[in-house]
Design a protein that fits this description.
Blueprint: H1 14-33, H2 39-43, H3 53-71, H4 77-80, H5 86-90, H6 92-98, H7 104-123, H8 127-131, E1 134-136, E2 139-141, H9 143-165, E3 179-182, E4 190-195, H10 200-204, E5 211-215, E6 218-219, E7 237-244, E8 247-254
Antiparallel strand pairs: 1-2, 3-4, 4-5, 5-6, 5-7, 7-8
Helix pairs in contact: 1-9, 3-7, 3-9
Length: 260
């Protein structure tokens, strides 16, 4: 889980470090909203909705990419924006026609590629650059506001992702294991971040810091964490193979119903 303490980060000036902390937490909660989505779920546009989850993820990548260009003072960011970003930036009919049939991994990797570019850009800049007044949206703004807008826009669309999720039968009535799981490193693998006392995970013997190497016999060490569909109904059991030092253990957790 991203730190909830907005503080200094090596390689970045103080205000930029805090901005990146907010962006990292926003991205983590965005990916939580789509964890385990299938291609069909990513393409779903329920009645009354304009965008699919895949379209919204593509939009987030496109917005961040074009603001790299804008904030870096590119003289013509529209012409510099790579062609594959335009359907996500525009959404609408173009997005509905072109953003389909892609697995979640496609969006995870695209978002990660764009974020790497943002980190590279901001590592080379300082707080004076971030605060510099300049023309923006017909008025005066600064790059601090530009990058606030990038993750503010993502937060807005993250809310839409959770609404779309409620239209998907596979995510209704899921049980709890009483532990928070997170990526082990660089978005891959699974680690147990925290176990709640008395929970099914606690009763099964899971511990904070456990590296989970397999779930129900499937090796997850090289998997993208957010590709994994880890939820299931109350009463469903899962066996977590955990690594502790040189030892492994199979721990079986039975999900319980969520409190009402």
């Amino acid at each position: 889980m991203s730190s909830t303490l907005l503080s200094d980060q090596p390689g970045f000036t103080p205000m930029i470090a805090r901005l990146l902390g907010m962006m990292a937490y926003t991205r983590e909660t965005t990916l939580e909203a789509v964890q385990g989505f299938t291609v069909e779920e990513l393409d779903l546009i329920p009645d009354g909705h304009a965008n699919s989850a895949g379209m919204l993820l593509a939009h987030m990548a496109a917005v961040e990419r074009i603001y790299q260009l804008i904030s870096d003072d590119h003289p013509d960011p529209d012409s510099a924006l790579e062609a594959h970003y335009w359907p996500g930036l525009n959404l609408g009919e173009q997005g509905r026609a072109e953003i389909r049939g892609r697995p979640l991994r496609h969006y995870l990797e695209e978002l990660a590629r764009v974020r790497a570019g943002t980190l590279e850009l901001l590592a080379a800049r300082d707080d004076a650059w971030l605060d510099e007044p300049l023309p923006f949206w017909g008025s005066t703004g600064n790059r601090h506001f530009m990058w606030f807008h990038v993750f503010e826009d993502e937060i807005n669309h993250r809310g839409q992702l959770w609404i779309l999720r409620r239209h998907m039968p596979g995510f209704q009535g899921l049980g709890l294991i009483g532990a928070r799981l997170e990526p082990l490193r660089e978005g891959r693998g699974v680690r147990c971040q925290v176990v709640h006392s008395g929970s099914p995970a606690d009763q099964a013997g899971l511990e904070s810091g456990d590296e989970i190497v397999a779930v129900d016999g499937m090796d997850v060490r090289g998997a993208y964490f957010h590709e994994l569909r880890l939820g299931a109904a109350p009463g469903v059991r899962s066996t977590f193979t955990v690594q502790r030092g040189s030892e492994t253990a199979d721990l079986t957790v039975t999900r319980v119903a969520r409190p009402t």
